[in-house]
């Protein structure tokens, strides 16, 4: 590490991401374990790698916060292997479920373009593991790229489960669709914005990793929406 750990941003965000991922897939994990996807090997493998990634992300960030760098480095090998598993299992699902670019929804196209960004970020983070400022930002930007399925699925258990019964007369289909879009994009963009604000506060400028990652995310959204 070339810089001492500072602040709790990465610790807090990593735990938040873990909680959101568990809530998003709570039906698979707790409430509807008999659903078909829970018996499909490709989804089981992908789910195990995905959950393992968020668990390790939170663990690693908090190990740095508590300055247990020796264990952090040891678990880094496991995290890199899990990242490979996330990449390959996601890629396999993309290939199996491919329907043609023009036939896919914009958010589905975006996920296809963001996966290589995740893989590249993790690879660069491994290569720059001796430079903490680059390493941690690459890890988190890469993770932000993969948040599409989480923010998509977390809306129902986190928002609609209580909002629809509470505002039953107002919660029309149009309101639900609008609320979903606001929540989806607000949450997803919010994570990128949080890192942007962290940089401004911590180092007084926007780190190249943050700037490049936010730019690529914006370009992917535009390409997916208008291609």
Give the tags:
mainly alpha, 9 helices, 227 residues
Report the C-alpha radius of gyration, rounded. Answer: 18 Å
How much of the residues is beta strand, in percent? Answer: under 5%
* Principal-axes shape call: globular
Question: How many angstroms does the end-to-end distance come to?
Answer: 42 Å
Average pLDDT, to the nearest integer? 93
The main pleated sheet reads as: none
H/I helix tally: 9
Give the low-confidence spans.
1-5
Report the order of strands and helices. Answer: HHHHHHHHH
Q: What does it look like?
A:
The protein has nine helices and no strands.
Per-chain topology:
Blueprint (H helix, E strand, L loop, with lengths): L8 H16 L1 H6 L9 H25 L3 H28 L9 H22 L4 H14 L2 H19 L6 H30 L5 H19 L1
Gist?
The chain has 227 residues and is mostly helical. It has helices at 9-24, 26-31, 41-65, 69-96, 106-127, 132-145, 148-166, 173-202, 208-226.
């Amino acid at each position: 590490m070339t810089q001492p750990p500072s602040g709790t941003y990465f610790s807090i965000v990593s735990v938040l991401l873990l909680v959101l991922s568990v809530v998003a897939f709570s039906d698979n994990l707790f409430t509807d374990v008999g659903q078909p996807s829970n018996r499909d090997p490709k989804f089981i493998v992908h789910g195990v790698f995905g959950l393992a990634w968020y668990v390790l992300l939170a663990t690693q960030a908090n190990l740095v916060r508590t300055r247990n760098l020796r264990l952090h480095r040891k678990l880094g090998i496991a995290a890199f292997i899990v990242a490979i598993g996330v990449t390959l299992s996601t890629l396999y699902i993309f290939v199996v479920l491919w329907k043609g670019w023009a036939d896919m929804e914009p958010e589905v196209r975006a996920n296809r373009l963001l996966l290589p960004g995740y893989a590249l970020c993790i690879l660069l983070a491994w290569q720059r593991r001796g430079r903490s400022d680059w390493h941690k930002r690459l890890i988190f930007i890469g993770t932000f790229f993969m948040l599409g399925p989480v923010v998509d699925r977390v809306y129902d258990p986190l928002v609609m489960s209580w909002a629809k019964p509470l505002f039953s007369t107002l919660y029309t289909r149009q309101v639900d669709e609008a609320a979903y879009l606001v929540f989806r994009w607000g949450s997803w963009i919010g994570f990128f914005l949080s890192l942007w604000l962290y940089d401004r506060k911590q180092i007084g400028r926007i780190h190249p990793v943050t700037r490049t990652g936010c730019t690529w995310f914006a370009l992917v959204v535009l390409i997916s929406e208008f291609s």
